[in-house]
Design brief:
- This protein is of the alpha/beta class and about 325 residues long.
- The protein has 2 domains: about 1-190, no CATH class; about 195-330.
- Helices cover about 40% and strands about 15% of the residues.
- It has helices at about 10-15, 40-55, 60-75, 90-105, 135-140, 150-165, 170-175, 185-195, 205-215, 220-230, 240-250, 275, 285-290, 295-300; strands spanning about 1-5, 20-25, 80-90, 115-120, 145-150, 260, 280-285, 300-305, 310-315, 320, 325-330.
- The strands form 4 sheets. The chain has a 5-stranded mixed β-sheet with strand order 2-1-3-4-5. Strands 6-7 form a two-stranded antiparallel ribbon. A two-stranded antiparallel ribbon has the order 8-9.
- Helix 2 (about 40-55) packs across helix 3, helix 4 crosses helix 6 and helix 6 (about 150-165) runs antiparallel to helix 7.
Length: about 325
């Protein structure tokens, strides 16, 4: 039996006698950077590796080596009678799950049986952030509760991956208007993804908007901001490296929204230093103006990837209408 899991913390706990068989930790951050339908294409992998090193400090060579290794192990799936996918409700996991379902949908499974365990809560956990929160005894109660993956799940997972990696965001928005009940967490997770696009109000995505609001309310510690924003947007499954990249971007450019005081930079692929833990963020005069309604993209431009969509320039082609909860085509 092979268990494909969403993180090292889960794998380490499962190894404490929770399950039998081998483990494959799927290490990816599909909500960040350019994402391609054919992710295994070497040229596509290299583009992602270069982006993730620059944006999040993940060494290019390490990323490529890890990606190639996990793909090689995945390709050996016929060696196992049963494969179990362990995932959860948030965008971080739903992107991984859709990729794997897309991959398996194009394989001949033969005698291998594919199973899925995907949850959005756990009894007694008030704010369920993910499987990594659970103890060995808690995970043991989930062992064996997985179900056989059906054709409709493979079909929908494949469609979600293709829509997410499409350069046209209308593909994903249209898919989310259809019946996605075969994968019950898709609609909320990818709907939250769309809210990361620059808004029609001021050009900020939901993460940047909430960050400014929290700072305006008096929260200035980056670590506390990560906790507060992460809890409020737990449906993103956003990790600390992702959030440090957001904050770093907000501190850059000719008209930064924020200024970091007490530390030279945000952490990369390392633990936060002592000076960072004591640092604080201050909203700039421009940040205050944007929070009050001036448009950040019109003044500063944008260069950001949303799955397969690349927005760049001073006039974002797509905006998120907060009230309508829909993307707006600004080219029309």
């Amino acid at each position: 039996m092979l268990h494909i899991v969403n993180g090292d913390a889960v794998a380490e706990t499962l190894q404490q006698g929770v399950v039998q068989g081998e483990l494959l930790v799927w290490r990816e951050v599909y909500p960040e950077g350019p994402v391609f339908r054919e992710a295994v294409e070497p040229s596509h992998r290299l583009v992602r590796a270069k982006y993730l090193e620059k944006a999040m400090g993940i060494p290019e060579e390490d990323f490529i080596r890890s990606s190639e290794a996990q793909e090689l192990q995945l390709a050996r799936f016929r060696e196992y009678e049963d494969i179990v996918l362990w995932f959860e409700h948030d965008l971080f996991d739903q992107t991984m799950l859709s990729y794997l379902l897309h991959w398996f949908a194009r394989q001949s499974l033969g005698q291998t049986r594919l199973h899925l365990l995907c949850i959005g809560d756990y009894p007694g956990v008030d704010l369920f952030r993910g499987l990594g929160q659970l103890s060995a005894s808690q995970l043991k109660t989930l062992s064996g509760t997985w179900h056989a993956v059906e054709e409709d799940e493979l079909k929908l997972g494949s469609a979600v991956w293709e829509a997410y990696t499409s350069p046209d965001p209308k593909d994903l928005q249209q898919l989310l208007r259809e019946d996605t009940s075969a994968l019950p967490f898709v609609k909320e997770a990818f709907g939250l993804h769309l809210s990361r696009y620059p808004s029609t109000d001021n050009g900020l995505g939901i993460i940047e908007q909430l960050t400014l609001e929290h700072i305006d309310s008096g929260i200035c510690s980056p670590i506390e901001l990560f906790r507060q924003t992460g809890n409020q947007l737990h449906g993103l499954g956003m990790g600390d490296l992702q959030y440090w990249h957001v904050l770093s971007s907000m501190c850059e450019g000719k008209s930064p929204l924020l200024k970091l005081e007490g530390a030279k930079a945000f952490p990369g692929f390392v633990q936060p230093s002592a000076d960072f833990q004591a640092s604080r963020l201050v909203m700039t005069e421009w940040g205050t103006r944007v929070l009050r309604g001036e448009d950040h993209v019109e003044r500063c431009g944008i260069d950001r990837w949303y799955g397969g969509v690349h927005l760049h320039g001073r006039h974002a082609a797509w905006r998120w209408d907060v009230e309508a909860k829909a993307l707006v085509d600004c080219r029309e």
